[in-house]
Amino acid sequence: MSDEVGLEKRALRAELRERRRITTATGRAEANAAITTNLRALATQFEARTLSAYLSIPDEPGTRDFLAWACAEGITVLLPVSRPDGLLDWALYDGEEEFEDELGMPAPTSEPLSPNALDDVDLIIVPAASVDRTGMRMGWGRGYFDKTLGSMQQRPPVYAVIFDDELVDAVPSERHDQRVDGVVTPSGIVAL
């Protein structure tokens, strides 16, 4: 990573973390309800029978209500499990128990599948710090999702979940950073 781009990314991530941190409980609840509605519409639009997503943590846009809906609808849900080598394994999620993986992120308790488990999903939903209008996604700096998306030979639609003000004109990027096909925000679904 070039020093200049690295500094830009760190500064933007710090700003976004602070914005997320100071969001009111009411504002967060309203945003999460709207995101759930929009994620359900996205899964329906793509007629997803299998998808990959992630269990949101408190400061992230909420995915948990959507995942509960997907499980109740009989949609097969795969969630990431971090590995020490920087790759992601995937595990089936049933909406029940979870644990903390190598990075302290929530993950399902089912037996991990290989990184290749994503080959057959209909839709991929990823976290992001910010996404620009060309679809360039900026994550939180560990590169797990960039490695995963960059290694796929055939990729289904990939949508990042962000708050409205995190869809911006441009984000600092490097060659390894991966684009997404769209974003889901409280205001709606935006194809990029």
Structure, explained:
With 192 residues, the protein is of the alpha/beta class. The protein has a single domain, classed as NagB/RpiA/CoA transferase-like (Rossmann fold, 3-Layer(aba) Sandwich). 30% of the residues lie in helices and 24% in strands. The chain is built from 4 helices and 12 strands. The strands form 3 sheets. Strands 3-2-1-6-9-11-12 form a 7-stranded mixed beta sheet. The chain has a 3-stranded mixed beta sheet with strand order 8-7-10, with helices on one face. A hairpin with a 5-residue loop joins strand 2 (76-82) and strand 3 (88-93). The longest helix is centred in the N-terminal third of the chain and has 21 residues, at 25-45. The chain starts with a helix and ends with a strand. The model has no long low-confidence stretch (mean pLDDT 91).
Briefly, what is this?
It contains four helices and twelve strands, in the order H-H-E-H-E-E-E-E-E-E-E-H-E-E-E-E. It is α/β, with parallel strands linked by helices and 192 residues long.
Considering the chains and any ligands shown, give keywords for the structure.
Rossmann fold; single chain; 3-stranded mixed β-sheet; alpha/beta; 24% strand; 7-stranded mixed β-sheet; 192 residues
